[in-house]
Amino acid sequence: MSSYDYDLFVIGGGSGGVRSARMAASLGKKVAIAEEYRFGGTCVIRGCVPKKLFVYASQFHEHFEDSAGYGWTVGETSFDWTKLIENKDREIARLEGLYRKGLDNAGAEILETRAELVDAHTVRLVKQNRTVTAERIVIAVGGGPNPHVALPGHEFCISSNEAFHLEKLPKSILIAGGGYIAVEFANVFHGLGVETTLIYRGLEILSRFDQDMRHGLHEAMEAKGIRILCQDVIEEVTRTPTGELAARTKNNELLTVETVMLALGRDPATRGLGLEQAGVKVDERGAIIVDEYSRTSVPSIFALGDVTDRVQLTPVAIHEAMCFIETEYRGNPTSPDHELIPTAVFSQPEIGTVGLSEEEAAKRFEELEVYRAQFRPMKATLSGRAEKTIMKLIVNAADRRVVGAHILGHDAGEMAQILGITLKAGCTKDDFDRTMAVHPTAAEELVTMYSPSYRIRNGERV
Ligand code: NDP
């Protein structure tokens, strides 16, 4: 009989926390999980899920326009932001209920409170003002938007958190950042009819992606009417006498908009968590430092998901939780595998990607074959929409392995999932070549690009 109140105490009811609590409880462990806000975490409550619903909402106006070429006449259309928010909130509440039910069914105790560490085995439940003990503790508290406090006027700006609950749709928005959130929300707001400007400090948006994807998306967004300012940053935001916001930029632009949104990365939510007191080490960004089994500097305390700032993605947090369970409760030490993570940017068009960008691959391999196709998607023929799809395979010439696959176009995220399997399996270009095409699809290009578009040798295009 354990001398602790619980076998496992989980702090944080997001993707990683819920998964570890549910799995441990279903293995017969005595588990409690504390959450101070809502179960489901960033992904379900104010991230991936509501974002995707917004993406769908924002695509309809193009669908209506495109239908004309296919013989349809669509009557007058209008958009009701309040209705979208209400319906979205209902769906999020349903999903939150499922998360709770899963925990309940597995026998985990749900605690609606903030929880903070006291020592290696003790947690303080803030709401109840009492402490409990556990043999193991998992910290899975995620992160929050970087508030950019160095920016004068940052208090006037919103983050993605507030974007999900705006009382009304703004007429105009300025979004700062060039990452996933900035790019996705720029497309969402533009699609819903908001005059949208994106401002990014670097040369080209989406710094960690393949150049072709970055340029291709940039062009497509500008062609839709989104203004993109690169190599510029907001230096100050002030409120104008008419209640709008004026953003002055480094390049001396003065942008007057209704809303300014900052999407400048997300910080680990470790402040005030009692980490120092318990002896849990963090890095300079406040992220919890863990070993290859998600164990912190305190042997009984583990951390997973965004709070460790390894890869900030929901499926990664879930995977880390499963590895923790395997290691600690199934006697099968398993470290998370962070190699070849497929991912999608739900921009319009989407980007789906797995593996190395051309630029990264060129640094690692002596010779690359690059297969590249650019074409007009079939649906655009009758709709008349000027859009293009780009597909790219990066192949290590030495062993013919496909080391990167990148798609810009409709359903790129769906395709990235399947491509992820092929790269994980170590497929070569010859495996792609001997795979029969599915016709007519866009994805068939992936198996019909027979000769390289160009080669990269020692970093130089030849
Ligand atoms: P990202 O890390 O993707 O992007 C942050 C952006 O902010 C970068 O363009 C960065 O520039 C810029 N930036 C950072 N600090 C400053 C600064 N002080 N001044 C000006 N610009 C700055 O973060 P996001 O906030 O977009 O998203 C957070 C995480 O959430 C992502 O890393 C992603 O893993 C996850 N996410 C995933 C999604 C998906 O899977 N579809 C969707 C949304 C989020 P630079 O590039 O030059 O560093």
From TrEMBL:
SUPFAM superfamilies from the UniProt entry: FAD/NAD(P)-binding domain (SSF51905), FAD/NAD-linked reductases, dimerisation (C-terminal) domain (SSF55424)
Catalytic residues in the record: 439
At the top of the EC hierarchy, this enzyme's class is oxidoreductase
**GO CC, alphabetical:** cytosol
Which reaction is catalysed here? 2 glutathione + NADP(+) = glutathione disulfide + NADPH + H(+)
Q: Where is the Pyridine nucleotide-disulphide oxidoreductase dimerisation domain?
A: 341-449
**Gene3D superfamilies membership:** 3.30.390.30, FAD/NAD(P)-binding domain (3.50.50.60)
- Which cysteine residues pair off into disulfide bonds? 43-48
Q: Where does NAD(+) bind?
A: 177-184, 265
Q: Where does FAD bind?
A: 52, 306
Q: Which UniProt keywords apply?
A: Disulfide bond, FAD, Flavoprotein, NAD, NADP, Nucleotide-binding, Oxidoreductase, Redox-active center
Q: Which segments constitute the FAD/NAD(P)-binding domain?
A: 6-321
Single biological process term from Gene Ontology? cellular response to oxidative stress
EC number(s)? 1.8.1.7
The free-text cofactor remark is: Binds 1 FAD per subunit.
The record's function comment reads: Catalyzes the reduction of glutathione disulfide (GSSG) to reduced glutathione (GSH).
Q: Which family does it belong to?
A: Belongs to the class-I pyridine nucleotide-disulfide oxidoreductase family.
Q: What name does UniProt use for this protein?
A: Glutathione reductase
